[in-house]
Amino acid sequence: MSISIKNQSEINKMRIAGKLAAEVLEMIAPHVVPGVTTNELDQICHDYIVNQQQAIPAPLNYRGFPKSICTSINQTICHGIPSDKKLKKGDIINIDITVIKDEYHGDTSKMFCVGPVAPFAKRLVDITQKSLFLGIDQIRPGATLGDIGHAIQKFAESNRYSIVQEFCGHGIGKNFHEDPHVMHFGKPGEGEVLEEGMIFTIEPMLNIGKRHMKVLKDGWTAVTKDRSLSAQWEHTILVTPEGYEILTLRQEEK
Ligand code: MF3
Ligand code: CO
Ligand code: CO
């Protein structure tokens, strides 16, 4: 396997898919409130993607995943399955959206705080977001995947958080998950060298407690073994001649 270099026409399609994924997160924001169920959030996103965007929610039936989005609350690290459970004040939740438009994927996630949350929870959410952007800032032709992982690891660990190792960022295009694996830890100068035209996600998962995880009996939901809080943020990024372009950037980030 090797890392594909996208041509101009593929890049244009990835820009569109990325923008649509970002717009789903913008659309859902006002619905993420105490009392709403994650099934309701799933239904709203599904209908928006299918009817408004005329796109496909990539998670639905992906390797047997039963819903259109992932909703990961509190100690859930990732791949939480929407259910009839209601959000409550103080919860932190990651919503992960992947859409397919014109055969190409856009993949992005963000954390939402439900009502006011405890300062230790807010700090985890903010540091995790910052670690994503420090990783992104490493991207330019000639840099390596190890540079990205190292930037994330250094910042996370200096803030006394642990980094989940079982899941990583990934190349993306016509396939949901392609080469390379983008680790959220590593050593500067190690790993694949980045080239213009590569497109991949970075999606660090940071825990307040230990890094270890387990998958629940549903076969999907990954939770922290020690039940400590976990947070994740994700963008899809293109390597450009000068550095990078975030394909899933939201208005609030511009
Ligand atoms: N969107 C996730 C990622 O960032 C993958 C979810 S797979 C699913 O790679 F099947 F759970 F949807
Ligand atoms: Co991803
Ligand atoms: Co994702």
Structure report:
By secondary structure, the protein is α+β, with helices and mostly antiparallel strands. 27% of the residues lie in helices and 25% in strands. 2-amino-4-trifluoromethylsulfanyl-butyric acid binds at residues 59, 62-63, 65, 70, 79, 96, 98, 107, 201, 203, 234. One cobalt (II) ion is lined by residues 96, 98, 107, 109, 234.
| Low-confidence runs of at least 5 consecutive residues | none
Distance between the termini: 35 Å
Q: Report the average pLDDT across residues.
A: 98
* β-strand amount: 15-25%
The number of E-state strands comes to 15
Which small-molecule ligands are present, each listed once? 2-amino-4-trifluoromethylsulfanyl-butyric acid, cobalt (II) ion
Helix content: 25-40%
Radius of gyration: 17 Å
Number of helices: 4
Strand count, sense and barrel status of the largest sheet are: 4 strands, antiparallel
Shape: globular
Order of helices and strands: HHEEEEEHHEEEEEEEEEE
Q: Helix- and strand-based class?
A: alpha+beta
